[in-house]
């Protein structure tokens, strides 16, 4: 992620509308070194209690492992709905009331939105930089900025292709290396009454990941505001590709990944594959009768020398603005996300996505998988995928609204609107969304 700053985010057109959002939220503001004094650590021997809000299952068991090793710090985990399913509104409401947890799980793509409403602490003031060397540089770049560090990488979702060899073998095919090969195989599979994959018209996150893999960079901050370019060659190539795939019935839009209908189609061999984040292995493993019938391959590339993967998902652990114990909160966040003990506990109890620390993938992910036919796919496929990302992709302050706009456009595909048209229209709507929030934005000159 290209380096930017919270100051630049604010300078990039944070006008009256955006200030109104900040006032409405009533947040205390980030504990930034250049914004307010830092809070001192607890006195020696003093007991500190922290709360951590997360949508990960059994996260208290991870906190318990930390508590056992740190007798003066006790972390209580509270489950919240994932992200926009209710977790973020709950966080915003708590911040507005002057409360909230000490720490919270916030997705990479949502972190800039919390920064703009002064909802997260600048952890650089509390020594976060000392942990930088532990993390994947591309992930560290998504939480660190020249004037601060606003979260600790928790997990990511490098993408791969989960597929059924027997279904591909209906047409004598193996896992494709390029998207062009993917389309060719998909066309042949239709003659065998199978689809190679599905394409969700209601969830734009997959399309966004495909565009990022192709080399797109939709938004970037500049000294005079934000610069947008969603109609670059890479994005339009991806949109045209999937327009053709849908129009030619190579891919189905009738089902969405991991829906009940998806599981039924996958179990019957009507779906040959799904290209998704590494976390999809647990979901694929729930396909009825699928044990031994699935394998994992690298995500198809747009060009032979292009990026080998893209990220789908990924979260941070951020310290919230109203925390009275940011020192201790950072200590817990760093332990949980960057140590062997913390990561192993997260994998064992909470099933997190891909580890943010190169070289630590979790003991349970080291060996072969019985479900995937004895394949050691994490080492063979996911590790290389995590190293072949688009480093220029970055998130922006109205990301979720942008996703909603794009998804609304994609839903009109059945009525004759192309994905290309939807992307072009979405760009204009996103520009309007920025300006409605008082943010300056301009279209990149072609």
Automatic annotation (TrEMBL):
Keyword Hydrolase: no
Gene3D superfamilies linked: Periplasmic binding protein-like II
Source superkingdom: Bacteria
UniProt signal peptide: none
Record carries keyword Membrane: yes
UniProt keyword list: Cell membrane, Lipoprotein, Membrane, Palmitate, Signal
Family matches, as InterPro entries: Bact_solute-bd_prot1, SBP, TAT_signal
Protein name (record): ABC transporter substrate-binding protein
Species per Swiss-Prot/TrEMBL record: Glutamicibacter bergerei
């Amino acid at each position: 992620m290209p380096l930017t700053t919270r100051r630049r985010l604010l300078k990039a057109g944070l006008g009256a509308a955006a200030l109104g959002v900040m006032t409405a939220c009533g947040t205390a503001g980030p504990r930034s070194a250049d914004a307010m004094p830092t809070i001192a650590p607890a006195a020696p021997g003093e007991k500190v209690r922290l709360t951590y809000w997360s949508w990960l299952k059994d996260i208290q068991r991870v906190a318990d492992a930390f508590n056992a090793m740190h007798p003066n710090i006790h972390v209580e985990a509270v489950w919240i709905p994932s992200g926009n399913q209710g977790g973020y509104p709950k966080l915003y409401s708590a911040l507005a009331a002057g409360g909230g947890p000490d720490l919270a799980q916030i997705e990479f793509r949502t972190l800039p939105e919390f920064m703009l409403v002064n909802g997260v602490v600048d952890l650089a003031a509390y020594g976060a930089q000392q942990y930088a060397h532990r993390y994947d540089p591309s992930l560290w770049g998504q939480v660190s900025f020249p004037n601060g560090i606003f979260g600790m990488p928790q997990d990511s979702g490098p993408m791969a292709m989960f597929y059924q060899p027997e279904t591909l073998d209906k047409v004598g095919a193996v896992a494709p290396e390029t998207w062009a090969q993917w389309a060719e195989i998909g066309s042949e599979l239709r003659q065998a009454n199978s689809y190679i994959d599905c394409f969700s018209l209601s969830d734009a996150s997959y399309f966004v990941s495909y565009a990022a893999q192709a080399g797109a960079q939709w938004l970037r901050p500049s000294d005079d505001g934000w610069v947008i370019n969603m109609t670059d060659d890479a994005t339009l190539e991806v949109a045209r590709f999937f327009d053709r795939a849908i129009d030619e019935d190579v891919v189905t839009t009738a089902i969405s990944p991991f829906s009940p209908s998806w599981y039924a189609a996958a179990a019957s061999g009507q779906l040959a594959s799904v290209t998704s984040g590494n976390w999809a292995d647990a979901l694929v493993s729930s396909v009825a009768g699928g044990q031994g019938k699935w394998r994992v391959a690298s995500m198809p590339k747009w060009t032979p020398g292009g990026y080998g993967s893209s990220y789908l998902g990924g979260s941070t652990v951020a310290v919230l603005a109203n925390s009275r114990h940011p020192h201790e909160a950072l200590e817990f966040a760093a332990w949980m996300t960057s140590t062997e003990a913390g990561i192993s506990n997260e994998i064992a109890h909470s099933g997190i996505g891909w580890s943010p620390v190169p070289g630590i993938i979790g003991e349970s992910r080291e060996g072969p998988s019985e479900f995937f036919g004895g394949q050691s796919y994490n080492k063979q496929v996911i590790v290389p995928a995590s190293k072949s990302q688009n480093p220029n992709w970055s998130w922006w302050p109205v990301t979720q609204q942008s996703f909603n706009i794009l998804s609304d456009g994609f839903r009109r595909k059945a009525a004759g609107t192309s994905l290309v048209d939807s992307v072009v229209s979405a760009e204009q709507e996103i520009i309007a969304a920025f300006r409605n929030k008082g943010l300056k934005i301009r279209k990149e000159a072609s």
